[in-house]
Amino acid sequence: LRLDKNERIVPFPDEVMARFYELLTPDAVMTYPELEPLYRKLADYLGVERDHLYLAAGSDLGIKTVYETFIDPGNRVLIHQPSYAMQQVYSKMFQAHVTEVSFDKRLTLDVEAFIDAITPETRLVVLENPNGFIGNVLPQASIRAIVEKAHRCNAIMLLDEAYYLFSGQTVQPLYLEFDNVIITRTFSKDLGAAGLRCGYLISQKHNIQFLNRVKPMYEVNNACVAFVQASLDFPQYISAFVKDVHEGLQFLRNQLENMGLTTAGGSGNFLVVYLGEDIDITSVIRHLKSRGILVRRPFQVTSLKGWLRIVAGNLEQMRRFVLAFAEGLDAAGWRADRYVLPGRA
Ligand SMILES: Cc1ncc(COP(=O)(O)O)c(C=O)c1O
User: Fold this and answer.
1) Contact (Cβ atoms closer than 8 angstroms) between residue 83 and residue 131
2) Three-state SS for 137?
3) pTM of the entire predicted model
4) Which residues in the chain land under pLDDT 50?
């Protein structure tokens, strides 16, 4: 049970896999990709213009393409901490100066501080909604305020909506209103196809034209094309997957809270749970591993110390996790009365 990397763990419906294999013909293997049909199908599915889309081999590569296109050495990039680790890597790679605004120990982002950190010198502002580590969302009004300030300062606004389907929220219409907005999404999360590397960017046509200047010959491969086509042929299974994850999350949250633990986030396909800093979290993780369950190493960021991130699957998978987790906590000597949430002491 891989609960460590925010991947899909719910099995795929047979019908989707059968359509995928049907589309993945020997010809699809032999020939260079023909991406136009996928662009058109995706544009219809999302309700956007074809030329407002840019496919990428994972939203990771889409994000890198934004840096490659818009960042010159010495430019300023604003990110929140924690955020997707490659934001730091690409900032270094393209020699940008990074300003960070951290989530606090209560796992909230000071939106005013984030807005204040956007200045006329800022070239790129990165905002994840939901956040990929904590799984919480910002109010739409806060996102709008951030976008407006970035727009006034002539900064590119990269809105990372990797987990938007699980949260049921999007600020997609903002990209039509503000010409500095680029939205990034990924099929790694909402379709659960992380291994195929497929994501996309949405923005106004002139931005997409800029991105196209550094576009590789083929943005994605035919396996990705076949899988996305197959998935979009059965939209009911996309909703069913999201429903499975919601049920798993709800069960997980209830079980952990019944054990006296505090949980947070839950707007993505994962939940964070507070164990405190007294307990040996690594021994709990080792116990889970001995039961065939992987969870991420404990968070290193100061504001997230004592919190553990757990990916949600369906009910059956979450039952298996909860059982092993309770054993692991017990063995580590965890007691509800020893546990104090930061700020609530
Ligand atoms: C917030 C966020 N953005 C982007 C990505 C990159 O996803 P991918 O490259 O698989 O599309 C991730 C992956 O975990 C993520 O959590």
Assistant:
1) yes
2) coil
3) 0.95
4) 340-345
